[in-house]
Amino acid sequence: MSYIKAEGLSKQYGSGDATVLAIHNMDFTVEAGEFVSIMGESGAGKSTLLSIVGAMNPPSSGKFVVDGIDVYRLGSEKRTDFRREFIGFVFQSFHLVPYLTVVENVMLPLTTVKMSKKKKRVLAEEALDQVGLAGKEDRLPSQISGGEKERVAIARAVVNDPPVILADEPTGNLDSSTTREIMGLLQRLNREGTTILMVTHSQDCAAYAERILQVSDGRLIGKDES
Amino acid sequence: MNLRDIAFKNLLRRKAKALFVLAGLAIGVSTVVALISFVDAMTENINHKLEKYGANILIVPKTENLSLTYGGLSLGGVSFEMQEIREQDLTKIKSIKNAANVAGLGPMVFGVVNVDDHKVLLAGIDFKANWILKPWWKIDGTIPGEKGVVLGSETAAVLGLNQGSPVTIKGRQLIVSGVLKPTGSQDDQLIFMPLETAQTVLNKEGLVSMAEVAALCKDCPIEAMVKQISDVVPGAKVMAIQQVVKSRMEALAQFKKFSYGVSIVVVLVGSLVVLVTMMGSVRERTEEIGIFRAIGFRKSHVFGIVLLEAGFISAAAGIIGYIAGFAVTKGAIHFFSESGGASIHPNLELIGGSFVLAVLVGLMASVYPAYLASRMDPNQALNAI
């Protein structure tokens, strides 16, 4: 049985004549430990798809199952818990909290977990070490570079060891050298067993994935480009 | 790292907004503290001053169709020739419910005596209690002992006696220990001696003609005390000097009402400041709240962060508000109380009350912004990941 399974996913916004079908009848599966890229032009429905996969945007119809859990049958708060336990987010614009230090940003997913402050700090430092940011724990986001911010975002995504990482254009704001470093980092995490779904415009980045889901006009048009 | 840390760090980051909320609440709290402290201090001061006017409850024998005035006040009926009050009945006043409010009890016995062919009214009094009941008394000389008397100023003039003069009353050789300075009251025409001595001289052992009570009624209704005294001294008629007491209470009650009204308005304005500022703060933090919700903060966690921030500011506002209110009251008292009679002291109840008030107002005004924050859709907040 597949680790992630989408059946007949559709998402429409608005009603009547103003209805927009962002996602139309999508079926796909992702195995545990897979690295999958989602590609498509702007407005193709990639971000909507990723938000549905991220348990933040209920589909208009269809079913979405992760590890045997029918995600959208969970109540709102249970879905929040699901996000915390199963998914690490790497946002396009980093989305770091500006008034928290690097290490505090990384500790955020552990905030509501019952664990000593010391233990949280140790886990966050380990995650930062993993992304090559040891020694920059106490800096503020405004005091580090774009590439470092992306690394902090990745460290925050992996600090509580979620089985799935969702990345939205993780290198969209980075230069080519930093892009290679970040993609290498994601690839390493994938090799260590983390399932990764990544939205990207870049063919070069998509090439790091094992499989590409091509989205166009809200439909999947290619499933096995690797 | 916990919710408290996040709330605290956010406040440090948004210092201007935090200070604005703090100022709004602190001004509200300090106004309430200042008004309450001022009212309390002035009440205490007024009470203290009114105490100087002496007795405000009179205990006289039950009589019919007799009237006499004493000290310019209508006493209802006092007849020196009729039944008296038993002195031991007066001791029961110490056991009434509001006994703690009795500042002074002055039993008096009266009788007419002849001194050098003059008929004079002799009054036996408790000189110790008299200092509380008639603090305006000034005696040229000393308080009399067992064989001494104090003369009213007119009595001394009529009888031609001075301090140290011998005087014979009902065959007893006594010494004038002092002369009362003019009071403008009937006291100027009396001869005073210690109660026990007078009772013996007048053959009224264990009896008193009337008694005066100085009651401190800041927190008690004077009518209730009158009733309580009537119950324990059944043979007597107990009267409050209504004019003094009622006007005092009414003035204070009106001042208090006004203060509470102003306090409510100021607190409402303070809570509006908190509400509006917190709403603005929440709107500014849409992205941040979206991140929190996306990475697994429950609605209750977001709600908690906003309330914790409000709680921190409110607690600080409570402390600052009390200190500011206290300082303002001190200044106001100095300004308004020319005689310097009023004073203000730290009041634990008010300290606790102002803290609780600030926290309650701050939290209540932040409930709606916190609710809005907690209801934010992470997907919309982040404009889709």
From TrEMBL, chain A:
InterPro entries: AAA+_ATPase, ABC_transporter-like_ATP-bd, ABC_transpr_LolD-like, MacB-like_ATP-bd, P-loop_NTPase. Transmembrane segments: none annotated. The keyword Nucleotide-binding applies. Residues 4-226 form the ABC transporter domain. One of its GO terms (molecular function) is transmembrane transporter activity. Pfam families: ABC_tran (PF00005). CDD domains: ABC_MJ0796_LolCDE_FtsE. This is ABC transporter ATP-binding protein.
Automatic annotation (TrEMBL), chain B:
It is a multi-pass membrane protein. Residues 262-378 form the ABC3 transporter permease C-terminal domain. One of its GO terms (cellular component) is plasma membrane. InterPro entries: ABC3_permease_C, MacB_PCD, Macrolide_Exporter_MacB. Residues 21-204 form the MacB-like periplasmic core domain. The keyword Transmembrane applies. Pfam families: FtsX, MacB_PCD. Its main location: membrane. It is found in: Cell membrane. Keywords: Cell membrane, Membrane, Transmembrane, Transmembrane helix. The chain crosses the membrane at residues 258-282, 302-328, 348-371. One of its GO terms (molecular function) is transmembrane transporter activity. The keyword GTP-binding does not apply. Belongs to the ABC-4 integral membrane protein family. This is ABC transporter permease. It comes from Candidatus Desulfacyla euxinica.
